[in-house]
Structures are given as C-alpha cells and as structure tokens.
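ok, trying the design again with the full structure, not the truncated one.
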C-alpha cells in the first residue's frame, strides 16, 4: 500500500462505468445509486461529455485564468443562465471545500465582518475554514486549532438563528438539504426566514449546493426555490460529471466590489474541466434530466415506502434518505453483495441515494426489488 488511507473502502476495484452502472475487472456489474460519490450527474462516461473532453484534450488541456478562454466563457454563461438573479457571476475553483472557503471569504470581505453561523449536522469540507464551519464534532475536531469566529445553531430552527445572527455576522452558511446528516431539509418558511433575517442584519446567505446543485433536487439549483435566492452558492460534485471542478456563484452586488488579484487558483476554470461542465449543462437540458429526476424520485419514494421495514423516505429529487426501522449498515452490505451501491449517513438508520440524474424507471424497479429482499 502506498496511498495514505482516506475513506473506508468498499471491497471492489472498479475499471469501467456506463450510465448508472460500474464494472470490476471480471466484468461484474454494480448498479450505482451512490453516483460515484454524488459526482456522476450525467451518468458514468456520458458519450457527449466524453466527446467534449476528448475534443478539448486535443486542443488545449490547460491554461490558467491569466488568459481568456472561449470554453471557460461558454461554461460560465451556461451555468449562470441556470441560476436565479442576482446570481450573475461564477468563480471557478477545484472542489467543494475550496468553493466554501472562497464563499466565506467573499462574504467576510463584502461585509467587513468575521463571524460565520452554520448549522448542526452540516458538512462543508475538510480544509481549515470549511471544516471549522462543519456542524459535526467528529470532523471539526480534526482541525486543531480550529479557525475562530464560527458559531452553530440547530438546523431548521429560526428562533435560534434569530438569536445567533447579529451585526457581527458575515454569513449564514448551510446545506439546504443536509445530506451527510441523514438527508434532512426544512420547510419553505425556514429559508424565507433566513433570507429575511440576513437582509435585516446585513449578513450574506450562503447555500452550500455542492450536493443539491446541478439538478439533484429536480431543479437546477435549490437557490431560487420558493423565491429564496442566497448571495453566494458553492458548487462541486456533479458540475463537470467527474472532472474535478468547484465553483462559487456570486451575486452582482458582491461581484461588483471584487478587485483583481483578491481571488485566484491555478487550476480553477481550466479548459478541460470547463468543456466537461459545459457539456454537463447541455446534457441536463437536452435530455430533460430535471423531469427525469422529479418523476424518478416519486417512483423511488413510493416504491421504498411500500417495503416493510422502511420507516420513511426523506429528501428531494435524487438526494434521498431511506430511513429504516433498524440499523442500515447490514442492509447496505447485503445490497453491495447483490450488486447495488448506496451511501450511508451519520444517522445510522439511513441509506443515502445519490444516483446519476439519468437513473430511469427500469433501474429504479430493479433497485426496489433488491432492496425489498435486503430489508
Ligand atoms: C455538502 C458538501 N459540501 C462540501 C463538500 C466538500 O467537497 P469536496 O470533497 O469536493 O471538497 C462535500 C463533500 O462531500 C459536501 O457534501
């Protein structure tokens, strides 16, 4: 072994992927409802995405933001065109944690304040500031010393938030659907209340849409849902169908005050990643994947709820938590043995589904059949 240990690994080595399936070296297929860690938005190796990457790789693999690039301009316009106003600008980075680091910095510099209020159970990444904003002690303890000026309140509780957000608050940062916590969301009044509170106190509202962005909830972004638009949105995971990329969507008011040299990263906005991102947006539109996610989500929800032993199904679109009446780990292991990959959550009773947005009715029915046997 020469790699440092990171995640606990499934006992499988993958060599190939196609659509919602991945394959090991013997040709054994796995139905992937974990979506390559919520990354394979257009499915594994979507032909249009692969073609765009191949074409770009033959032209120019990379040059940084010190030069202009048509493919970068096209990717930025395509992403901003899906975002609600006033989210008019995009800053390309390389990962979800980097997107959150920069979103918090943008908020602090914009407001001239330091404090960030986040929610218990939220996950925002593993670099210094993002892990310090993560509402799970297990992760936060890894950053020692933590970055100061972070506060936490219970998710979904507006009264607590009202007390925590003051004129010292630069930003409220939260996942609109808390994924790792076990797929929990809150009613529209909560998000409307957050927007109104941030406006009243002069704080920025940041949605961490690393998981919920790029179609996963059945809308292109959670931002804009029920009329609530945050000031900043962090993105990553499915943005480029598997080529590493992150981004921050930035409101026009914040963008107007950003000067040259304040933000940057060598690899952010590289041509290869931008070609993949542009193709990803195109595929989501051309194949009407948002409709597919909404319909598929209902089928999954109804089907799972009809299985004895399933207590609840939480979440939106293709970010679903199947809540079992018992510990989910043995069920997850049995699903794996039968060739189905799903995620776990910090809530031990939850199976987490983050499939490609291309997941269709036949694959859903196949999954539900295996799930019924395994539960
Ligand atoms: C909601 C959320 N934010 C941030 C991150 C961090 O993203 P990355 O691993 O790309 O740094 C993750 C990763 O799982 C995430 O789920």
């Amino acid at each position: 072994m020469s790699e440092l240990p990171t995640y606990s690994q499934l006992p499988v080595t993958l060599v190939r992927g196609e659509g919602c399936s991945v394959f090991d070296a013997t040709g054994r297929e796995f139905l992937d409802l974990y979506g390559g860690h919520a990354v394979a938005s257009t499915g594994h190796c979507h032909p249009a995405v692969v073609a765009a990457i191949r074409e770009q790789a033959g032209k120019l693999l990379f040059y940084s933001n010190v030069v202009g690039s048509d493919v970068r301009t096209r990717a930025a316009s395509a992403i901003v065109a899906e975002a609600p106003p006033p989210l008019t600008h995009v800053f390309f980075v390389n990962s979800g944690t980097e997107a959150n680091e920069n979103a918090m910095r943008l908020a602090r510099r914009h407001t001239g304040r330091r404090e960030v209020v986040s929610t218990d159970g939220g996950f925002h990444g593993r670099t210094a500031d993002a892990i310090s904003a993560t509402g799970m002690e297990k992760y936060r303890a890894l950053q020692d010393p933590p970055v100061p000026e972070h506060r936490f309140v219970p998710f979904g509780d507006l009264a607590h938030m009202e007390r925590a957000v003051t004129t010292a608050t630069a930003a409220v940062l939260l996942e609109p659907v808390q994924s790792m916590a076990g797929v929990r969301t809150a009613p529209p009044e909560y998000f409307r209340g957050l927007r109104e509170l941030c406006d009243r106190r002069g704080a920025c509202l940041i949605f961490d849409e690393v998981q919920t962005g790029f179609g996963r909830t059945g809308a292109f972004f959670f931002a804009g849902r029920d009329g609530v638009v945050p000031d900043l949105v962090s993105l990553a995971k499915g943005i480029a169908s598997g080529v590493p990329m992150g981004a921050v969507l930035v409101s026009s008011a914040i963008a107007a005050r950003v000067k040259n040299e304040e933000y940057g990263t060598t690899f952010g906005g590289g041509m290869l990643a931008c070609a993949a991102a542009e193709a990803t947006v195109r595929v989501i539109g051309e194949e009407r994947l948002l409709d597919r996610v909404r319909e598929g989500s209902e089928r999954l929800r109804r089907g799972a709820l009809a299985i004895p032993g399933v207590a609840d199904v939480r979440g939106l679109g293709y970010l679903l938590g199947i809540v079992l009446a018992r510990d989910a780990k043995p069920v997850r292991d049995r699903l794996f043995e039968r060739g189905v990959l799903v995620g776990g959550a910090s809530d031990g009773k939850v199976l987490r589904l983050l499939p490609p947005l291309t997941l269709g009715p036949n694959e859903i029915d196949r999954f539900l059949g295996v799930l019924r046997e395994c539960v």
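Keeping the full-length input from now on. The mean pLDDT is 98.
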